[in-house]
Structure formats: C-alpha cells, structure tokens
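Changelog-adjacent note: as of this version, every example in the card shows the full chain rather than a window. The one below runs 734 residues end to end.
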Amino acid sequence: MIERSRKGRNVLFWMAAPFAAMTASLVPGQEKEPGTAVAGEETAQETAPAPEDGDDLFTLRPVHVKARKWDELQQEVPESVAVFDEEQIRDAGARSVKDLSFFVPNLFINEFTARRLSFPSLRGIGSGQGDPAVTTYIDGVPQLSVSSSSIPLLDVESIEFLRGPQGSLYGRNSLGGLIHYHTRVPTDVARGEATVSAGSYDWQELSISTSGPLVEDQLGLGISGLFSSRDGFTKNDFTGNRIDERNSVFGRGQLVFTPNDRDAFRLVLYGEGADDGPFALNDIRALRQRPHRVNQDFEGENTRDLYSSSLVWDHLTDHALMTNALSFVAWDVDETTDFDFTPIDGIRRHTEESQNYLNHEIHLSSKDGESVRLADDASLRWLVGLHTFVSDSERMPSVDFRPGGAGIFFDPAQVGVDTTEGDFDDFGTAPFGQVTVTLWEDLDLSAGLRYDYESKRATINHTFETGGFTVLDVTTRESDVYDEWSPMGAVAYRFTDDLMAFARVAKGFKAGGYNNAASAGQFAFGPESALSYELGEKATCFGDRLLVNATLFYVDWEDMQLTVFDPAAGGRVENAGESTSKGVEVEVVARPWSGVDVIAGYGYADTEFDEFVDSFGIDDSGNRLPFAPETTRNLGLMYSHPCCGDWRAYVRGDYFRVGPYFYDASNLERESYELFNFRVGLSSPRVRVEAFLNNAFDEEYIPIAFQFNPADPTFFIGESGTPRFFGVSVGVIF
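Full-length structure tokens:
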C-alpha cells in the first residue's frame, strides 16, 4: 500500500508543482515600512539597516508583523506575538525552530533525535501523535503534520510565534498557537552568502544562497542550499557504534514576477532528504546513570523525504488586495528501530508513512496600512477569505515479535509479524473573516469568525503472520464529519504612543480522527476545542530603549487529545476530558547602552486535568498536563564594539531554564534543566567569523520520555538531551 501511495504521490507532484501555492505575500505597487528589533524580540519581514551613529544607537526599532494577515506594528497587535528576524536568528546561533523556542515564554518543543518528530506545545496545549495542536506555516503554507514542520532555518527572513488560539484566521490545529516561517524574497539588489561550519561530533555544514534580478523591476530569482552532517551523540554498548547521527541535504528556489504595479507572483519550491540514525532510546534509570548510552542488538535508521511547492498571486485594486494561493506538500518517512531497547533480539519495529496534500486559500482585504474611513473618528480594516484542502496519507507500522523475545517480552504464541496498514483521506473547507474598527485613533475593536467543515475517512487493515501463515486479517472502515465555529474578539486601547492594553477572547479547534493501530473500539477519537482569555499590555519606555510586554491568560479546553503509549501500536490518541491552563508571560528587551542588548523572558503555566483516567486505570484528575513546563526562563546579553575599521567584535551569553514538567499524565516522572550558551566573534559588512559553545556546563537531562510497559506505569523509555557542543563558522556575504 505504501509503495503504491508513493507512485501516486509522484504523479500528483509533477501535476501540481507548476501550480502549487502559498500565502507569503508580495504586495505589488506598495512600499512597506522597514523594521527590525534587537536580540530575540519581534521583527518585520523587511528589515532596515541599523543606524550608524547618533542617539538612534540606543533605541529599539519598530517591528512589523503579519500575524493577522496584514502588515502592522507588533506593538499594536492585541495578542501575544514574538518574532525573530534574520539577524537575531544568526546572533542566537539558531539552526532550528527548537533553538529559538527557548526565547519564547511558555513554548516547549518536544523532539526525538529523528528530526521529523517535533511536537510544539504552547501554554500546555500540544500534541503527540495525530494532528498538531500548534500548527506550523511556512511562507503561508500550513503543515498538516508535524512530520513536515521542522526544516532548516536557511534564508529565513523572520519567524513569528503566535501564542493563544488562532482559529478564526488559521483554522484547524491552531488551538495552542501558531509558528510561521517567512523566507527571504528575491529583490532587485543582487546578493549572495556562503557559510562553512564545523565542530564537535564531526559536525560539518555548508550553506550557500544567492538572489537577484533576472529582469530589473520585473523578475527575480533566489536559490539556496544546505548540506549538514554530524556523528551521533549516543554510543551503543552492544556494537560500539555511535547512533542517532544526522545527515541532510536541503534546497530552495524562488521566482518572483511583477509584470506591473498591480500584480505580483511568487513561486517557491523546496525539498529535503534527511537520513538520521536510530532512536537513542533507553530505560531512563539507565540513562541517568550513564547518559548517552544504549545497549541494543539492532540498529535501525530514520529517513524523511520532503517536498513543497507553492505559488501566490497578489492583485492590487484601488481599494483592496486579493491574495490567491495554492500549494502542494508531500513527505514520506521510513523508520526501523529496536523496539525492546535491549541486547536481546526480541522486538523490532518498521514504520512507513507518507502524506500528500493540496491546499488553497484566497482572501480579499483592505490594503496593508490603509483603512476605510467610516466617519471623522472611525475607520475600518477588513479581510474575508476561503480556505480548502484535500489530503491523502498512509501509515504502516509493523512490529516483528521475534523468537528471541518469546517468554521474556511476550507469550511464545505471539511470535510473528503484526502489521497495520491505514489509508486516511481528509477534506476540509472554511470561510473566514475579520474586521478591526478604530475609534478616535486610540481604541481598536476587532472581531473574527471562521466556520470549519472537515470530512475524514479511514480504511485500516490489520494482519498477523506467523510461521509463514496469515492467522489474522481484519479490515476496519471509519468515517465522520466535524464542524466548528471559531470566533475571536479583542479590544485594544492606546493610552499613549508607547503604551497599549488589550483584552482578547478566542477559540481554537482540532478535528477528531483515527488511530492507525488500536484495540477494538479505540480507533476513533473525538474533536478537541479550547477557549482562551487574555489580558495584556505592550509598552516601550525611556525613549524606546526598553520594551516590556506582559500577558495574563486562562485556557479552558474540552476533550483534550492526549497521546498514550501502546506497545503493540507504538502509541494512540484518546480524549482526556476537560483541562485548564492559566499563567503569565513577560518579555523584556532593552538597549541600555550603545552596543549592549539585553533580552529576558519568563513564562508560568499552571496546567491541570479536571477529569481523566489514563490507560493504566489511574485517576489523573488534578494532575499537571504532560510536557507542560511550570516555568520557562531566559536571559541573554550581547555586547558588540567597533574595532579595526568597519569590523565589530561581539560576545554573547544566553541562559535558559525549562521546567519542572512531567512526562506522563500520572505525574510519576518529571524533568527540569538549565542550559548556558556562549558565542564570540568578529563581523564586518562582508565577513563573519565566530565560535560558539552550547550547553557549556554539559547539563545531563532527558527532555523526552514515555511509559513503555503496559503492566508497569513506572517504567519509562527516553532519550538524553544534546550534550556540550562546540563549533566555529565563517560566513561571507558577496
């Protein structure tokens, strides 16, 4: 079934590639205000050069965002938004969205060593298997699965992190929030950049990008590529090999066509081939005694192939902007692993998954930065649109119960191969809209509404083979329809140009679905919804040298979809009843002196199951949610100083603390950790040379673990966190 799907996907690929699209937008015939920020704070998609002298060296520059699908100042958006631009990503040494997550209060990204398993959680709202609860957009293209969301930060101009439900504008799978990559758009200014890096564990990385005009003022081209490899962090005592290595090749191409002042087209193609080592999983009691060690007789592998194509057409009229976007995404993974995690040849698991989908969105809005005048003291901004997608995915987990494990891990009668092949079809459509009315230039009243309709079908075939005979062959068919209204309302008042307060209420929605492998009666799980209340302020002080943003929040959600481990299925999703999360977020950015940037953040989240009995029969009511850190903290300091003509020397240190948090709903095992990162370097307008030391004090921690033994809730399998890591890099801009 999987092989047939790949052939079909390739046909779709060649048919859809020329037409694929997305919603990263060029606004034809219209200039945008440039804006950046300092050291990890919000930034615009177009950046202005830093001031060279004068008092502006002390001030924070304005930040523009696209959080509400139109361009506006971040400090005027009535919700919690954190954004990082290209310069800040480089200064932080971030190579993945996981690296940036430490700077965002109450954001926790839970990852395995295989890069395709990346599960973001905001304010305690997250997911494991199934659809994400914090969705990722890449240049306007929604990633329907976590398997396609983690890509290199190559040619990324900015990343926006939206906290709280985004259902009214972005729909399904955004009930916790949203992560949005914006890549660099080719312009009429020719530029190129190349970076070579090397470091611990034989890490090697080469990236190169170039862009510029093919036809001045009309046609621009951008091409970029990245090669990266490193050895594994973990040693297998059974073989003496290092496992969990990473190797990947990534490439992106962009073509921008602006035939006139009213139309713009942007075509983006990217793909990645990733070959990662096996999961570095072990009993967490053993890992705490000997970190980064496993003892497994079988070493598997994890591969992921990813492709995306997208095209967006922007058309500007005298009074509105139309954005018409179509996209196509395809990925497949192939995983093999030792599934008993011991030197006994007992259980092995093989997983194949694939997905391909077409996504279309069209919306019409008032032009960026412009409002419709309703009266002398009233104006209006508006947007209406329609989003539609169709998806086909297949999953095939196969568990090989080998003779060596009989009588140790399972009954001898279970020797054989248990395989489940699932075919899942999904169709969804959603009209949506939003308006913002401004009264007396100080009061904003915003409202949004979306109606999601989603139809799902699943065909699941379960077989068991032993001794060359098929002794079980059962096919299950399921189908259902889910629909939901997702409203949003917000009020913002500007007391001064530098101080705004806001209140926001929003709903998020995630459709139900089907487990690929589960016991009878456990294939289907229901939809999940969350209602969030926010009260916040955004302020700049001392002549724009200090920025302080703070938010109080309360989240109430029903039928939370929770991943529970199943040794036969590998994991399944079930609904966990009602849960709540409440807390606070504070972000501070300061430039107290020329060349000195300070960033700090604090997040507190008090999460709780109101009612839930887990798969072990334990009543978890009153417990904290899994993988929901009670606190997240970050503090960073960067100092730069001119030297030797146009060169600048800089040094940076970052401190992060995560936790405590629990791995499980029963709150039996928990973790917390602290990390220190340091960077030093020299930079000029053309060259950048730096060295870095991450996890400088070699903190030993286990960021991810899960319950493995259905008869013993205290038995956990996990992976060690990234050890101390040193590297150097040289970058050239030409």
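Structural remarks: Residues 2-733 form a domain with the Maltoporin; Chain A fold (CATH 2.40.170.20).
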